[in-house]
Amino acid sequence: MQAGNAIYETIADLPPVLPVFPLSGALLLPRTQLPLNIFEPRYIAMIDAALSGNRLIGMVQPMPLQMPEDPDVPRLAHVGCAGRLTSFQETGDGRYLITLQGVTRFAVGPELEAITAYRQVECDFAPFAPDLQSGMGEDDVDRNSLLETLRAYLDANNLEADWQSVSEAETEVLVNALCMMCPYGPQEKQALLEARDLKTRAETLIAITEMDIARSQNGDGGTTLQ
Fold it and tell me: In whole angstroms, what is the distance from residue 137 CA to residue 135 CA?
């Protein structure tokens, strides 16, 4: 696959270690784009290092804190996604506005005793090698069920969609975009990330959305797009 100016044909093209950005609720998937506002000094340093290196960063969700765990060094989820830094802008007030393009998921390995302010982990890309192939599993997705669920969610929340763009979108793009846009919590986002394949990811999204609609209709409160 291509991300920016880089081409990743096999997992051998990826580094064994990545700097990681633990961010709760943030979901990056292969071939999607995630804009980020970087302001903490340690992550400013991480971006500087990435720009001078391979431009790859691992997005990983932190696990829920357990006392007496250090809130600055939370445990990490077992699966993250590598993203290539494809857009970079300085704001003039010490922040960076960046965009990451998802490359492939990885299993989070041991953490390095790094001398850097940001954390670094060993990465195992082997379980997710198919991520590098665009459109893998599209034919197995029940697109009609996905669109029916999307329409039901929008109707339940008095929202609208650009249905022409939806109908023209490739199935992989549609599934992954909806997963990233959905207003669900960190656990649901992690389940979508860890789904075995595109078909399973679509089925997981449908199930989560149907439960959310049911809660809303029962008066238990649901989520709404912000």
Answer: 6
**pLDDT tens per residue across all 226 residues of the chain:** 899 999 999 999 999 999 999 999 999 999 999 999 999 999 999 999 999 999 999 999 998 766 566 777 889 999 999 999 999 999 999 999 999 999 999 999 999 997 899 999 999 999 999 999 999 999 999 999 999 999 999 999 899 999 999 999 999 999 999 999 999 999 999 999 999 999 999 999 999 999 999 988 776 655 544 3
Angle at 176 between CA 7 and CA 174, to 5 degrees: 105
Q: What is the DSSP letter of 65?
A: P
Q: Which of 63, 196, 179, 75 is nearest to 129 (CA)?
A: 196
3-state secondary structure of 136: coil
Q: What tokens were used for 157?
A: 């929340």
- Tokens found for residue 175: 């599934």
Q: Which of 143, 145, 150, 130 is nearest to 197 (CA)?
A: 130
DSSP symbols for 92-122: SSS-EEEEEEEEEEEEEEEEP--SSSSEEEE
| CA distances (Å), origin 201, targets 81, 106, 175, 194, 198 | 15, 16, 8, 8, 5
Which pTM does this prediction carry? Answer: 0.91
Strand partners, 59: 21, 81
